[in-house]
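Researcher: Go.
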Amino acid sequence: MGESLKTLFERISNWLTSIGITGPLGQILHVAILMALLILLGFIIDRITRGVLMMFIHRMVKRTTSTFDDILLEKGVFKRLAHLVPAVVVFYMIPNVFGGIYAEVQDELVSKIVNGWIQFFKDMVSVYMIVIGVMTLVSALNAVNIVFNQMDIADRIPIKGYVQVVQFILILIAVVWVLSILFNFHLKGFFTGLGAFVAVLVLVFKDSLLGLVASIQLSVNRLVRIGDWVTIPSRGADGTVLEITVNTVKIENFDKTITTLPTYSLISEHVQNWRGMEESNGRRIKRFVNIDISSVHFCTEEQLDHLEKIKLLKDYIQTSRSQITLDQAKFGADPTLPGFGSNLTNLGIFRKYLELYLRSHPKIQQDMTFMVRQLQPTERGVPLEVYVFCTDKAWESYESIQSDLFDHILAIMPEFDLRVFQGPTGQDLKQLTIK
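Model: Structure:
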């Protein structure tokens, strides 16, 4: 094909000479006509390539079962590759047309003009090939990212940040390459002098550079992944991570609003990631009830008889009473005296009841941290804290189970002659005023 085109342009050149297109102006016109014919040749090849090649590719894509070629087609990779074919042909023909066919121009001024035109034409074709080539690679990387996101591993190891880094580097190389062609400087000298502009580049591209470093750290260390539930108090974000790019992170909050923030904020600010909870066997319930200290007392025999009727407490109270009887016989103390060694308090029995109740609860994880404990007494009473893990980690179910649990705690407390501490309300103050 190359020899045929070369022969064609030789005949055209000879024909232009035969019809009198000679002399300085004729020589310039001669070159201009050959350039126009080369551009026309490029357009014709482009049409043929896109028509024939794309038709063939469409048929091949439909026959294959892989989705990768479908995504490549959708992202325009094959279409951009088709644009490269005429550019490569034209670039290859330039030295053959203007070097081997067109004779050297004798006039110095005309020679300078002609050579300048030819070089500019060659540079434009080179720039076109670089731009189309980079666009093709960028589209191919986008297709790779889409295919990877369809895999199960994508939730654990997202590659979008890496893809954007590679795309950024490709575009940067292309820009420098194009500038070196247009302004005719060597890349070695350019990169040598680039150090003088580092400070300016850092200021201009600060967010992009910080985001680039942060996205690499996030991916390598798996700090935050797509689908993670994160809480960022300083940004008012509390929801699921939808997207992580080099520059931004998109989070869908639970009220369905979208929070967009810089990627580097996931490294530089406090971020609470709930992934550990979601991957564990349970979700923590950590809540306390303030008990009025004045309602805490030793249990009487009548109270113990009453509480022993509660099925969960029957064995515990019977065992405790037996122990008290043994202690009485051993130490010879008066069991009626308050504070006798093994006397039971209503708060202690209530705490034991909660432990037994939670042990029998089907929605409480039994092999994780399990505590019902007293905290430091305050002016608001004695805090009795429940620290357990719920088997159901879904938010709605978790809140429902937690609410049912504390509904039961608040409702059963009067059976133990205990009161919840609460500040005086308007009704309380009104009754005091009436009295």
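Model: The chain has three domains: 2-150, 185-276, 284-428.
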